[in-house]
Automatic annotation (TrEMBL), chains A, B:
GO molecular function: DNA binding; DNA-binding transcription factor activity; pyridoxal phosphate binding; transaminase activity
A Pfam entry, by short name: GntR
Name of the protein: Bacterial regulatory s, gntR family protein
Keywords: Aminotransferase, DNA-binding, Pyridoxal phosphate, Transcription, Transcription regulation, Transferase
Superkingdom of origin: Bacteria
The species this protein was found in: Desulforamulus hydrothermalis Lam5 = DSM 18033
Cross-referenced PROSITE patterns: HTH_GNTR
Domain HTH gntR-type: 18-86
Subunit structure: Homodimer.
Family in the record: Belongs to the class-I pyridoxal-phosphate-dependent aminotransferase family. In the C-terminal section; belongs to the class-I pyridoxal-phosphate-dependent aminotransferase family.
Length: 502, 502
């Protein structure tokens, strides 16, 4: 095999500024990796290589030396330079990475969340992720804001800014909250890289291994994971929670935190009634319980206004509030915020600086402009109108096609129908069948704080698709339900068990 | 005092969708907080309030009930409703936040970093933060990218994306790295919310309390802090490091990690010579040492090209590489990246999802466009030309005005002059005087891995200001140096000491 034909017609790029020996080494490395130059083959001598590229012999020697250091070629003294045998890096790692990593508490759930966030397979209708419809993202408005307002901003605003956030953003968010009855000024606001970061930061500064945290069950999986990763033990409040059970927990276990989504809860869609909110605050004050109120959906109401946020009901300073622009504007902004007393904001900021110095200020500026130019109200009116239509379409389709097999309540806001199988089988089994019919959703066990494989509940997101697609999805679901019924699945699937490996 | 005059002429906003009682309560709460309605004053009766606003008595009762729950008013049975006494929340906290927080290892350094990142006082020329000049941020180009390309992108790209990053971003970064001789494909790239996040994530998955980490000294303070916050012990390699000391550390302490900035080091400006890079890689391979190579400045070369990155020299998979667009485009993008084997990327992503789900995809898209439209080379040419002029201007001014009092080397790239006082006194003392002359910089002790107050070194950033301002800054520095000399400061300032409080 004449190697030179593979090298002679390759030309070096004259605009390339790297040293010549690196360019030649890179070119040869490329051909070795593509196996144009296969393992074991003898390469041109240093002199031949120099001639082929019209470079000095030193350059040729340096090129081979670099390839040798990369393990791509080897030199047999007195014989020449040869392409090295193929290395199977993955199967024989030089560095035992997996043994070097710190212990990771909970792989399975974590990867479930990742799958939800990842892009679904094509031709499957995904009702899984809690995703606003991309067609409604205000990208044109963002372009307009750049065109009309970027000249008026000081470029220094896009340099490094204080950890707590872009000051005009903190002021605008405070003003927006004031309109909703939440007392806050800029110093009460911490800008976040999405409200997920608020869960992480609060866990980091409040939770030590073994601490108790109370959450609703079912609830947002991302929160459970963060608390568990901090070593916390979870106490569950069933969805139709009663405050007696909570008070019992408070007295017996002295939990560090209550995590709650009072409005259009994820996944159940439930709204905590106004009087229960007031009772909850009173109980929290009595026990000095820290409440972490997560409120991503309250602006997405389709019938009546929901009750005011817990944070609006009282100046109890043990209440931490989390908000986000991911559901109402677009997730890609990665812009949320936390509301709390300055002593808390300060401590969270000390932690946040290690994580990302501060949140994206380009996105904070866009949101600030959106708010200060008064564009939010109009945008909310548009998305509410559209999502209400979708909610109604899905309710109608479920009622017409699936009411025999599942129970569900029509949510007054948010993104989700929370459904329960009436018939035999679990939602896990339903999902396995559903995927064959090219529809996916989230089985209920993912939202449970205690592992189970008996769950009959599941979550459908109606926000991400238009009415025609939603109808098609529910038709596929109905087909799946009928297939399942015919299979006569046992209601008694095997219980959870732990088998030692012997 | 007739209260009604404060309430009668206030009108409720008919477009406000909140319940009337909330609107009224909010209006009164506002006047209480502004002390238009001072503490102790009697409010209108429920009937009067109803008349004033033209609402039902139930609405008036509910408004007062809400204010009562917020602690803003109180009801004296048989007498009426009164504004509560002023509450001093900060001085008498309901929740003892400071006692609830998890221990925080190292306040002083952390707040130093925050001060560097925060905006400096006006009329002081800050040579402190390692900040590119805001006048050079490509904001116009960003606007153009929105105008010409936003239509061509799928809006779903601005929804939730995989934790590892926006795929076109990962591909573009890999292609950019290939041109620099670094072998990488998209699966080797993790998008980061700034390269600071890479330091945090790597610490999180590799370091347990008590582990050893080797760093250069002086080095980037943000890295030291993150390693120390993870409970690591720092082993220092002096700036003109020798590999014998490193090998000694490797054998004696088996460190988990070497952190190094090989090119235009922060703060020293030093470039690790090519042959030392090769020797370092060989040593690392022999000991399976993980190297974390931080490379924010290598594109900012003003004389000759720097040697290739460590990551370009070898396929040793124990080498983790960190890059960022903060110094070459703009910090507000908060967009950096980590390069490593897929097994590492996967584990880091599991950790990152808890922190922020994924990095800002709007910014990742902007950077991708910047790269794929070939705009980076031109932008780099502009900033290199400008920063080179500034470097030269500062070198000239320092030589002319300060050469008697300080030593310094002219850096070949990056942002910093690293200077050393020849005369009596420490850089801390110099800074205290300098601030009076309206110039600031970073004293060397901030970059030391071991606390000291004897340091005579300090860092000047030349990137953030134009030549005229730099000249003015060095004139102020020269004035400060001459003032210090006249003060006959003792070279022997008191050594570090720890005094027990008794």
């Amino acid at each position: 095999m004449d190697i030179s034909k593979h090298l002679i017609n390759s030309e070096l790029d004259t605009s390339d500024k790297r040293p010549l020996y690196m360019q030649i080494a890179f070119l040869i490395a490329d051909k070795i990796q593509k196996q144009t130059l296969p393992p074991g083959i003898k390469l041109p001598s240093e002199r031949e290589l120099a001639d082929l590229f019209g470079v000095s012999r030193t350059t040729a020697i340096n090129a081979y030396r670099q390839l040798e250091q990369q393990g791509l070629v080897w030199t047999k003294v007195g014989s020449g330079t040869y392409v090295s045998p193929v290395r199977h890096v993955e199967s024989q790692p030089e560095v035992p990475w997996l043994q070097l990593f710190t212990p990771y508490p909970q792989d399975p759930l974590a990867s479930t969340l990742r799958d939800l966030v990842a892009t679904p397979a094509s031709n499957t209708i995904s009702l899984a992720a809690g995703l606003p419809d991309p067609a409604l993202y205000p990208l044109e408005t963002f372009t307009e804001l750049f065109n009309y307002h970027i000249d008026r901003v000081s470029p220094a605003d896009f340099g490094y800014i204080p950890v707590e956030g872009y000051h005009p953003f903190r002021k605008s968010v405070a003003a927006m909250l004031n309109e909703k009855g939440i007392a806050a000024s800029a110093e009460n606001i911490l800008a976040l890289s999405g409200s997920q970061q608020g869960l992480y930061l609060v866990s980091k500064i409040l939770l030590a291994p073994g601490d108790y945290v109370v959450t609703e069950t079912p609830t947002f999986i991302g929160a459970i994971q963060v608390f568990q990763a901090a070593g916390a033990r979870i106490l569950s409040l069933p969805c139709r929670q009663n405050l007696e059970l909570l008070e019992d927990y408070l007295i017996r276990y002295r939990p560090k935190l209550l995590y709650i989504i009072p409005t259009y809860q994820n996944p159940s869609g439930r709204v905590l009634p106004a009087h229960e909110r007031q009772d909850l605050i009173k109980l929290a004050k009595r026990h000095r319980l820290i409440i972490l109120e997560d409120d991503p959906y309250s602006e997405l109401s389709y019938d009546t206004q929901p009750p005011p946020a817990l944070k609006a009901l009282d100046h109890y300073e043990g209440l931490i509030y989390l908000g986000t622009f991911s559901k109402i504007l677009c997730p890609g902004l990665r812009t949320g915020y936390l509301v709390g007393p300055p002593v808390l904001i300060n401590r969270l900021a000390l932690e946040k600086q290690f994580i990302d110095l501060h949140s994206n200020n380009l996105a904070q500026w866009l949101v600030t402009m959106f708010l200060s130019e008064g564009m939010l109200a109009q945008h909310l009116a548009t998305v509410r109108r559209e999502y209400k239509r979708r909610r109604d379409a899905m309710a109608k389709a479920l009622q017409r096609l699936c009411a025999g097999e599942i129970e569900f309540a029509v949510p007054e806001g948010g993104f989700f129908f929370w459904c329960k199988l009436k018939q035999a089988g679990t939602s896990q089994q339903l999902l396995q069948e559903a995927v064959n019919n090219r529809i996916s959703f989230v089985p209920g066990e993912v939202f449970q704080t205690v592992p189970t494989n008996q769950d009959k509940e599941f979550r459908l997101c109606f926000a991400a698709h238009n009415e025609a697609i939603l109808l098609e999805a529910i038709q596929r679901l109905a087909k799946t339900l009928s297939q399942i019924r015919k299979k006569h699945l046992s209601t008694a699937s095997p219980p959870c068990s732990v088998r030692p490996i012997i």
